[in-house]
Amino acid sequence: MRIDLHAHSTASDGTDTPAELVRNAAAAGLDVVALTDHDTTRGYAEAIAALPEGLTLVTGAELSCRIGGISMHLLAYLFDPEEPALLAERELVRDDRVPRAQGMVAKLNALGVPVTWEQVRRIAGEGSVGRPHVATALVELGVVASVNDAFTQDWLADGGRAYVEKHETDPFEAIRLVKAAGGVTVFAHPAAAKRGRTVPESAIAEMATAGLDGIEVDHMDHDEDTRARLRGLAKDLGLLTTGSSDYHGSRKTCVLGEYVTDPEVYGEITRRATGAFPVPGTGGA
User: Which residues of the chain have pLDDT under 70?
Assistant: First the structure.
């Protein structure tokens, strides 16, 4: 089995619609793909309706969190999307994305970059607006060569010249909320240092004690030494280890299935989940 547990659609900051995402996942030879848009479940219905035969969809989300002044992302799988407390928190985070993006546009204007809110809104379309949409605007204007090049201290990285904070959930509260909604939690790309400051291992240990299920190890932002270190940490803490592409369509260079999750780990994730279940494809539209 080939299992990719981290992918984005136009419901947040990917460039594939949810339907295109699942069709592309099947074409890439995946058996399982997770839809993990930022702080939203809005792509579920379209993805399920289009799900090709032979592909299983894991419903999820990538939750925006902050601990000790450091931003981090928590992948949540197979939770009940209608559970009121978790739904309210996701909406709070998502609603703060618009004023945050507008603040980044204002900072960029002050730096002499002629980006406009209308441009960013056009790029985001119906998705939850975020930094990658602002980064794409910078690419369109020729300010940077790629989306990744916008995530530096010069521009949009944490603490960068045009960075603006947004509401982010305390990860211990996020773990509690996801667990209460029957879901499973995995710390996304925990050692992606090029994105900014990373969470110390002591905090990951505290999250493990609080119920964190796993950490994403095999990821494009982790080199071989980092992956080996994270595997050792996961073993010490009794955490699951996953592998994922973090696919965003054409917005990033990663491809579906670039990194995958061990079938035994996937099986354990599904065994732990009680809020929702993987959806098998039946040859959708």
Answer: 284-285
